[in-house]
Structures are given as C-alpha cells and as structure tokens.
Write a structure and sequence with these properties.
The chain has two domains: 35 residues; 30 residues, no CATH class. The protein is built from three helices and no strands. With 74 residues, it is an all-alpha fold.
C-alpha cells in the first residue's frame, strides 16, 4: 500500500483536505503582523567638538579630520 492510495480512493476527502489547508494558509497570511515600513533602531553615537573662535577651515583640519580618523578605526 503506497502513501497515495488513500488519497486516490477518497477524492472528495482529498479535495476537502486540500481546500482546508489552502484556507488555513490564507487566514494565517492575513493574520501576520506586518508593518509596511518596520521600525528599525540602529545603534548610533553622537560626537560634538568645539573650538571657540576657530573658522570652518581650522575646525575641519585640526578637529574634524583627526576625529574622523580615530572614529573610523572603531
């Protein structure tokens, strides 16, 4: 006796089983809690550096560039 024999002998029960499984799958699909745009919290750090009286060029060369090099190694 093969595994397919009961399904061949009872075609109506086979169709009912297939429809029941399909209906269960459809109900389960619509019951899934899916957000259109899921909220993702990525780890971030904030670094603040100041040098009173310095113009933007000095800040870029003496403060920002060394910080970027050091933090880029993390």
């Amino acid at each position: 006796m093969s595994i397919s024999a009961p399904f061949i002998r009872r075609p109506i029960a086979t169709m009912m089983l297939a429809l029941g499984l399909a209906l269960s799958g459809i109900v389960a699909y619509f019951a899934l809690p899916i957000a259109p745009l899921p909220r993702v919290d990525l780890p971030t750090i904030v670094v603040t550096a100041s040098q009173p009286g310095a113009d933007p060029a000095v800040m870029a060369s003496s403060v920002a560039a060394p910080l970027e090099r050091r933090l880029g190694a993390i």
